[in-house]
Amino acid sequence: MPLYEYSCQKCSQKIELLIRGDEKPECPHCQSTKLTKLLSVVSGHVSNGGGDSGAAGGCGRPQCGMGGCAGLG
């Protein structure tokens, strides 16, 4: 069952809804069905290679490497 993120056109709330089958999504705040589906950011597990657990982990971007994002900014 997929979890989708929506923005309500009536009350401007951003919400996440679990949608099953042909269910029509509805805003839990104002019960409007005028929702815009938002693009969600995909998250995943980022491993630091099993090294020092006190070190900052990377953000997942290849240019950050094992030292986190210290070189960016």
Q: What does it look like?
A:
The protein is mainly beta. The chain is built from no helices and three strands. It has strands at 3-8, 14-18, 35-37. A three-stranded antiparallel sheet has the order 2-1-3, with no helix packed on it. The protein starts with a strand and ends in a 36-residue tail after the last strand. The model has no long low-confidence stretch (mean pLDDT 76).
User: What kind of assembly state do the chains in view correspond to?
Assistant: single chain
Strands ordered across the widest β-sheet = 2-1-3
* Extended strand count: 3
Query: How does the helix and strand content classify structurally?
Result: mainly beta
Radius of gyration: 19 Å
Please give the alpha-carbon distance between the first and last residues: 38 Å
Number of helices: 0
Characterize the main sheet: 3 strands, antiparallel
Shape: elongated
Instruction: Report the portion of residues in β strands.
Output: 15-25%
Question: Could you report the average pLDDT, rounded to the nearest whole number?
Answer: 76
What is the share of helical residues? Answer: under 10%
Unreliable parts:
none
How do the SSEs run, as a string of H and E?
EEE
